[in-house]
Each structure stands twice: as C-alpha cells, then as structure tokens.
Amino acid sequence: MKANSFYYMDVFLFSVNAPSPPPRPWIPLARPSTNRQTCIFTVMCYNVLCDKYATRQMYSYCPSWALSWEYRKKGILEEIRHYGADIINLQEVEMDQFYNFFLPELKQDGYDGIYSPKSRAKHMVESERKYVDGCAIFYKTSKFVLIKESLVEFNQLAMANADGLEHMLNRVMPKDNIGLAALLQTTEAAWENAPEGTFAQQPILVCTAHIHWDPEFCDVKLIQTMMLSKELKNILENSAQLLNSMDGTHTTAESIQLVLCGDFNSLPDSGVVEFLNTGRISQDHKDFKDLSYKKCLEKVLSCDKPNEFTHSFKLASAYSDDIMPFTNYTFEFKGIIDYIFYAKQTMTPLGLLGPLSSEWLTQNKVIGCPHPHVFSDHFPLLVELEMIPTVGAAMNGIIGHR
C-alpha cells in the first residue's frame, strides 16, 4: 500500500468516528410586525440525494452502511421533523419513497403533499417508474389549503419552442428535469394580528425545481430557468382565473404571492441566479455559450429592452454566500447551488438556518458528504418569512369570515 493510501485511510477512519456536529445556528434578520395583519411561515428546501444516485463510485469516502437508503432516510426524516417547516420542498425523491415513506410519515405530523417524478417516468413500466426521482412539496394543513398543482416539464417546453433549432433539440430537449408548483391558500390559523372576525385567504404559489446538473451545460440550466419563469407567469394567470371562478372575487395574477426554490445546480455568479435575482439577462450572456437561442427565447420571454430577456417577478434570495458558504458538499465540489427566492415586495425574511459548523468539518476531516452524521450531500435551507396580504387581494375582498 502506498504512503498516501495510509493517509486517506486515516482521514476516512477519523471522519467516520467523528462526533455529531453542533446544531446549526438560527440567524435572526428582522423582528415580526405587531401592528398589522401578517402570516409568518417557514420554508425548507432540501435535496435528499435519492438512493439511485448514492453510489459507492460517487461517494467512496462514505461507509456503505451510512450510504444506504435505509440508514439515511431515518436521519433525513428526523431532520425534517426537527425543523418542522410549514412548507417543505424536496428534490431527488424517488416515487416509491414519496408514496410509501415520506407522505405517510409526514401525514402523521399534519402535512399533506404533492409529487411528480421526472418526465422519463411516463415511458417506463411500473417496476422501473417507482425508482425515478422527482420533486415533492409538503405543506401543513393547519396553515394552508391546496387549490391546484401544476407540473412544468422542460423537455416538453423545449420541444414546443424549438422551431427546428438544433441546440434546443439536441441540448435542451433531452434533459427531463421538472418544476412542480402548488397553489396554496392561507387558513385562519396562518395569520396574526388579524382584525376581529376576519382573516385573509391569501393565495400563494410555491414552486420547487431541479435544474440540470452538468457544468458543461450552463446554457441548458439558464434556458430551463427562463422557461420556468414563463410557465410560472402562465400558472399565475390561470390560477387567478380559477380563484375568481371559485369565489367570485377579482383576483389578479399579481396578487398571488410567489416562493420559488430548488436545486438550480448553479453558482451565485451564474446566469441562472442573475436572471432570477435581477429579472433580466443579456442575450449575449456567456452562459448561452455563443449558441443561437435568441429566436426561440424571443417566443418564450419578453424583451423590454434591446438585447435583454426579462421576467416580471420581483424576487430576492433568502441566502447570501456570506451566510452560507456552500449548500452542496462533496469531495469533488463544494458550493452554493440550492436557493429559496421570495416575493420581496410582500415578504420579509425574519430569520434563517445558518451553515453547518466549518470547524466541525475541518477538525473531523470530513472531506465530503454524505457522512454518518450528515445524510445527504446537500444541506437543507430553512427561512422564516413574514407575508402581508397583497393590496389586490384585500381590495378584491379575499376575506374569510369566522
């Protein structure tokens, strides 16, 4: 055995025998309002690393017993229950695990949920389909009611907008990533400081997405995100029509609030994050890789200014890289690729879950996750948001009476 093999074996054994990490800190950001009606709720975003991807080849530094799904799923569920978020967004959930593990377990804690596997599942037999991973959204039924769910399939959108363009057909369309959205409405229990006898039934659209992973396909990541923004606009418009038909109000798409989160597989300086944060992206952005997507994207998105694609959402990221140095931590890659975006005009972050202790990682020579004490290669994000009723919703009388 070579000398450096002894070194890596020592690191491995030291890491495996490490004590549990200290609790992640809660970072307060603002005080809740006391003089107006508000809804305070927590949102979690967590890529749980499905069993199919948790291979020994990929995670050789993790002992087999700690990499097994039977071991990891218990730790993941315990972690989810510990934080008790009002809305939980999960990625890389296998269909079988959603219906036979996560959903029945979380229903015991007062949640209900929706799920969709990646698009490839529809072409598989049942015995194979149940192992396809996808996205899930859970919500506490005491605070939210599900009105409608919507699935966004990027390969279908790419096909519909390709116009024969080679790059759309050969690069974007074969990737079967998805987004999943839940149109929720608040219940009476969700509100604080509500006027006596009334409470706002505020509609909120929660979307989670899992964007393509390969760093060589930054153009695909950006286009998937741009198509997602267009679909969210359509979903909001359709949701407003649905709510109006249900209760006779005059809900507008703008009065439905938005939370968007997921594993975007994109760093903070990427075109994906720039587009979501600023609402615009140059048609010449380097992440398009000098490929001619312009004609297709002009069909999908508005171009309010010359040489720019835009979206109309006013979003902000709950986390910044000075708070969370990485959300994905493996031997080969450590960086921020998971995000929670919120409607910054009507929502305020009150606090968020801080990072895993860097001292613990260093002192115990943890070179990557999963680990016997860390159950995925991603760390869950958790933010507490304060939401006020939208002006449109209040003016249109979206009020419930006791």
Automatic annotation (TrEMBL):
One of its GO terms (cellular component) is cytoplasm. InterPro entries: CCR4/nocturin_mRNA_transcr (IPR050410), Endo/exonu/phosph_ase_sf (IPR036691), Endo/exonuclease/phosphatase (IPR005135). It catalyses: Exonucleolytic cleavage of poly(A) to 5'-AMP. Its cofactor is Mg(2+). Residues 45-378 form the Endonuclease/exonuclease/phosphatase domain. It comes from the Eukaryota. Signal peptide: none annotated. It is found in: Cytoplasm; Nucleus. It is an enzyme of class 3 (hydrolase). Pfam families: Exo_endo_phos. GO terms for molecular function: metal ion binding; poly(A)-specific ribonuclease activity. Keywords: Cytoplasm, Exonuclease, Hydrolase, Leucine-rich repeat, Magnesium, Metal-binding, Nuclease, Nucleus, Repeat, Transcription, Transcription regulation. Its EC number is 3.1.13.4. CDD domains: Deadenylase_CCR4. Belongs to the CCR4/nocturin family. This is poly(A)-specific ribonuclease. It comes from Henosepilachna vigintioctopunctata.
